[in-house]
Fold this sequence. Notes:
The protein is an alpha+beta fold. It is built from eleven helices and twelve strands. A hairpin with an 8-residue loop joins strand 4 (161-166) and strand 5 (175-187). Helix 5 packs antiparallel against helix 6 and helix 10 crosses helix 11 (303-317). The two termini are 51 Å apart.
Amino acid sequence: MCVSSARSERLVNLVLCLLSTRQYLSAERIRTTVAGYSDAPTDDAFFRMFERDKSELRELGVPVETGRNSYLDNAEGYRIARRDYELPDIQLAPDEAAALALAARLWDSPQLATSARNAVLKLRSAGVEVDTSAAPGVQPRVRATDPAFGTLVTAVELGRVVTFHHRRDPAATPTVRTVEPWGVVSYRGRWYLVGHDLGREAVRCFRVSRISDARAKGAAGVVTVPEGSDLLAIVSVSAGPPTTTVEATILLAPERALGLRRGAQVLEHSVDGDLVRVQLPPLDVAARWIAGYGADAIVLGPPELRERVLQTLSGAIS
C-alpha cells in the first residue's frame, strides 16, 4: 500500500474511533486501537504522527476535542462530538419538496436522469419526504435527445476541446468547428453549446440540434471558463427573439386533425382532404404538434417545416 493511501486509511480509522465514544480517549489508547499507529517504531514517532493527523483533521473541519473525563485523569484525551460533526437534519417545506420532485422529473435524458434519481434517493434516505407525484398537472421536460448532447456535456465536465459539424440552418452546408466548450444551456426550449470558437477566435453559441459528429479531443482540464461568464446572457443575445409564428400549408384528411383546423383558412376541398393555410407556433413546436397527427396532416410548405416534421416522425419510428 502506498504511503498516501495508508495515511488516508489511518485518518478514516481515527475519525471512526473518536466518533464511537463519548469519553475522551488517551493517546496511548488511540495508539493501540487505531490501525496504522502500530507501525510507528518509537514513542516519539507515534506522537509526531498523531499530531500531524490531528492537525490535518482540524484543517479539514473535523472538530477534534481535547479534554479529560474527570479531574483525576492526569493525561488529556480526544474525541469527536457527533453533534458538532454530523450535518443537521434536512428540513424542507412541502412546496420545497414538491419543487425537488419536479426537478427530478425535469430531466428525461439518460445522461441526466440517473443523477436526478440518485438525488431523490439521497433525500429520502435522509428522512425527507419527496413526493414525485406532486403537482400532477405539471409535466416539466427538458428534452435532450439530440445525438451530440451526451458528448458535449461530457466534454464540458472534463474540460476537453470538441470538434463537430454545424449547420447554420437546416438547409445549409455543415462546417467543421473546433470549440473550447464552456457549458450547455437550455434557452426557450432549445439546447445551446456556448464556448470559445478556436477557428473564429471568438465566443460563439451553437444550437445542439444542428450539431453532428461531435467528438472530444486532447487532454482533460485544458478548457477554463472565464470568471464571471454569463452563459445564458450569451445565448439570449445570440439566439435573439424567437419566431412568433410559422405560416404553413397543410393537407388534412377529411374530418380529421380537428386541432389544426381551428383558425385555419380552407384553400381547397377535395376527396383526398382539405388544403388549409394556418398560423402555427415556432418551428420546433409546430413540427412536434403536426407530427402528432401522423398521416392525417401532410405539410406542403414551408420546406423547413416539412423537413422538421419528417425528422420528428423518423425519430419516433427508430
